[in-house]
Design goal:
six-stranded mixed β-sheet; 2 domains; Nucleotidyltransferase, domain 5; alpha/beta; 15 helices; globular
Length: 370
């Protein structure tokens, strides 16, 4: 897997906006913290640049450092098909922070660094990836939509209800949205990463919160342009060729939704009445179908300024959240489920799970041969 070049010393810089602060002993293994292999996952999306560094803990992991910054790399790409210079500069600045964090890990490091829809769809995407390598030392990999869907499942698999016969998993991104049907009727107790074997069908919609908001408007959103967004998304759902079979499975019962995106975490935060966003309370929250409807209606009634002031939304996402709701609404109308589980996790967690699982298998194979 790809990782940073030039890993070495250097003073740690102050925490940037959106960065998770952690104790130095945990962050720097040479200061008395973790001394084994660390794992890192970086996801450069259409809207966000996110990094997780973690250490294995049983069959899961413990995060030792994290970073997230909204960069809007895909801004304007819907009309120009190119990444703008301003957007690329924002992303590179965030990636430089990530590169410093990775270089200062102080432990053997296994990393996978991915880029998604903005770099996939932009004419100058490959040139940008090369520029990132030259300016930051980070070798990013542009992943396919199929890989993105699988990683979303891997990252969220621990939130699948143990009794579920199926899951409609969706990942609403900035430039695309992935939709996956996990058919679990014959899973025979499988859980965790093993659930990726039960992907019955998936599709990637060429719409995300950034592209949809740029097309229909995200600041002043009324019922008419909201419904236009829903119809836009609905027109793409026919690409899910197993839709009728999924509808039959839902009608039989035992199927729930599982959503990963800023859209669903916002809805959960509002439902819980949080005065400030709290991942520990949001991740894993169950929302009934009528709860989702109520929160979307509440968001639609909010003027833009109120969305900016809401602690679960903020200025960075106030113009995007209703586009995300429209994507969710189109999915809910096509495949209504009684319950939705909210995931504040996704691609990065999926990368970490796959890297750690591959290393465990490698060690087991080595022991079996000896």
């Amino acid at each position: 897997m790809h990782g940073p070049r030039g890993a070495g010393g250097g003073a740690a810089r102050p925490a940037a906006s959106g960065e998770t602060r952690i104790a130095r002993a945990e962050r720097n293994p040479r200061a008395g913290g973790y001394r084994g292999t660390l794992y890192a996952a970086l996801d450069l999306g259409t809207n966000n640049c996110r990094l997780l560094v973690a250490k294995p803990e049983g069959r899961s992991f413990r995060v030792v450092d994290a970073y997230s910054r909204i960069v809007r790399l895909g801004e304007g790409i819907g009309s120009s098909r190119r990444l703008s210079e301003a957007a690329m500069l924002r992303a590179i600045e965030a990636l430089k922070v990530c590169g410093e964090k990775l270089a200062n890990c102080g432990s053997p490091l296994r990393a996978r660094l991915i880029a998604t829809e903005a770099c996939r769809g932009a004419e100058n995407g490959p040139l940008f990836i090369e520029r990132v390598r030259e300016e930051t030392g980070l070798a990013l990999e542009i992943v396919t939509r199929e890989t993105e869907a699988r990683l979303a499942v891997a990252g969220c698999s621990s939130l699948v209800a143990p009794e579920a016969d199926g899951v409609v998993l969706f990942d609403i991104g900035g430039g695309s949205s992935e939709l996956v049907w996990l058919d679990l009727r014959n899973r025979c107790g499988a859980r965790g990463l093993a659930l990726t074997r039960f992907i019955r069908h998936w599709t990637s919609l060429p719409l995300g919160v950034v592209t949809l908001a740029e097309r229909h408007g995200g600041t002043r959103v009324g019922t008419d342009n909201y419904e236009a967004m829903v119809e836009d998304v609905t027109s793409h759902l026919s690409s899910f060729s197993m839709g009728p079979m999924l509808s039959e499975a839902i009608a039989a019962g035992g199927v729930h939704m599982l959503g990963t995106s800023g859209t669903v975490t916002t809805l959960a935060g509002m439902h819980l009445g949080l005065e400030r966003y709290d991942r520990r309370r949001v991740d894993g929250t169950w929302l009934a179908d009528n709860d989702v409807s109520a929160m979307i209606a509440r968001l639609l009634a909010m003027p833009y300024e109120e969305r900016v002031d809401n602690p679960c939304i903020g200025a960075d996402r106030a113009d995007l959240v209703l586009a995300g709701c429209a994507i969710l609404e189109a999915i809910r109308r096509r495949w209504p489920c009684e319950r939705l589980r909210v995931a504040d996790r996704g691609l990065r967690e999926g990368i970490l799970m796959e890297l750690m699982h591959a290393d465990r298998k490698g060690r087991q194979s080595g022991r079996n041969r000896s």
